[in-house]
Here is the input.
Amino acid sequence: MNFQLLDWVILVVYLILNVFVGVRAKKYIESMESYFVAGRRVKVALGSATLIATEIGIVTFMYFSQLGYVTGFSCFVLGIIGLFGYMVIGKTGFIVSGLRRLRVITIPEFYELRYGKNVRILGGILLFLGGVLNMGIFLKMDGIFLTETMGFGPGVLVFIMTLMLMVVIAYTVLGGMFSVVITDFIQFVILSFGMLIATVFIALHVDFGRMASVVLQQFGEAGVNPVANPKFGWSFLAWMLIGSVAISALNQPAASKSFASESPEVGRKVFLYTGITLAGRYMIPMFWGVAALATFGPSQDSMVVMPRLLGMTVPSGLLGLMIAGMLAASMSTYSAYMLAWSSVAARDIVEPLRGKPFGERGTILVTRVVTTMIGIFILVFGLYYELPATAFQYTAITGAMYAAGAFGCVAAGLYWKKANIAGAYASLGLGALAPVAFLVLEGIRDMLPPWAFFLLDVNVSGFLSFFLAAAGMIIGSLLTQKSHPPVILPSSAENQQ
Amino acid sequence: MNVWSTVWLVIFCCAALLFFATAAVIAVFGARDLKYLLSRSPRADEHGSRKHHR
Here is the structure.
C-alpha cells in the first residue's frame, strides 16, 4: 500500500481544518431559519456545489463501484436515467420550485399545509425511519473503504468509523446548515480533485481494451445490455426512471439545499447544474469497479476491490489528497443527512406530538440531540447489519420507503386539486408497504411459500412502491371527495404556474 | 472491443469530462457565492459596516 507519512499529514490537516471551519460557522446562526436553511441566501453555484457534495459520499463510490464490478458496463445506464431525472426537475422546477415558494423547511411541513397535522406526523415518521435506515450502511462502507485504501485491514474498522462520526457530529451539531454549506463547498473542491486523481491513475493502470474484454468474457451480453442483465431488467429500469425524479426532488437532505436557495428560480437552477454532473458522478465510480474487475478478476469481495485498487495505483502524497477528498465527500453527506433527518424528527414528529411549540432554541436543541442519536444508531447498525442485495439496491429500496409515498403526496398536493387527506394516508401507507415487506420477508426467506418469492425481488418491490403510492393517492382521493374535501393551498394558484 | 463496450466507454468519457468541467466552473463561481453568503449575514454585516466606517 502507498499510504505514507505525507498522506497522514495531509489527512490530519484536512480534518482539523474541517472541524475549525465548521465550528467557526456557529457565529452565523441567528435564528431557526439560519440553522436549518442558512437564512435562505444560497446562490446557484454554491447551492450546486453543496448539493453535489451532499449526494457524493464514500458510500456512493462504494455502491456504484460494486455495481461496476458485478454488472460490468450495463450499470452505466443508471447515469443516463439519473441525468434524465435531474434534467426534468432542473428544466421545469417540478416539485422543488413549488415547495421552495411555500417556504417550507421540511417536506412533512407541506403535508400539514395540504393534508393536516396527522399526515405531517405520519409522513415525518416514515421519512425519518426510511432516511435513517437508508444511511445505516454508510458508515460501514466508509470504514471498509478507508481501511482498504490505507492498508489497515478490518481490525481498525470500528475505530475509524467512530472517529469520522465524531468529527461530523461536532460541526453539524454546532454550526447547522451554515456549517454544512461552508464545509460542503470545501469538500466539493477537494472531492472533485480526488476523483480526478483516482480516475487518471486508474485509467493509466488499466487498459480500456482489457476492461472491455474482461466484461464480455465474464458477463457476455449482460455486461453491456442492462435489459439482459439478471440484476436489472425492465422492472429495475422502470423503478429507476420514476425513482430518479422522486428521490431527486424529495430526498430531504437534497431538498434542504433547494429550500436554502435564494428563490424558487435559484432552487430550480441548482438542480439543473447539479444534474449536468450526474452522469459523471455515477459513471466514474462504476468505471473504477470495472477496472477493479479487470485487475483482480471476478472471485473477490465486491466491496473491497475498488478501494484496494485505489490504494495500489495512486502514489503516496496524492493518495492522502485523494482520501481527504473521499473523506470530504462522506463528511458532507453525513452532515447534510443528519441535519435533514434530525430536523424532520424535531419539527415534524416530536413537536407536533408534544402539542405546543418548542421555540427556536428548543427546536435546535432537540435537533442536536437527535443528530447525536442518529450517529450512535448508524454506528451500531452499520457494524451488525448484513445487506440483502447489492448496496445500491439497499439504499434505493430504503429510499423508496419514504420517497414513493412522498412523491404521491407532494406531486399530487402541488399539481392536482382533488388530492385529499384520505389519498395522502393511502399513498404514504401503500408506498412504504412493498419496501418494508421486502426488508422483513428477506429475513424469513426460508419460511415463505414459492408464490411469494416475487416479493423478494428488490426491483419488483421498488417499482411496486411507486405504483401503489400513486394508486393509493388517486383512488383514495377520488372515493372520498365528499367526506374529505381537499384543502386548497393559499398560494396554489402561484404553484400552478 | 465490441460496439456496445465502445459506446459505453465513449459515454463514460463524455460524462467524466462534463463532470470535471462543470466542477471547475462551480468551484470558481461557488467561491464568489460563499463570500456573498458570509458577508450578508446580519452579524457579519455589523462587522463589515464597522470596517467601512473606519
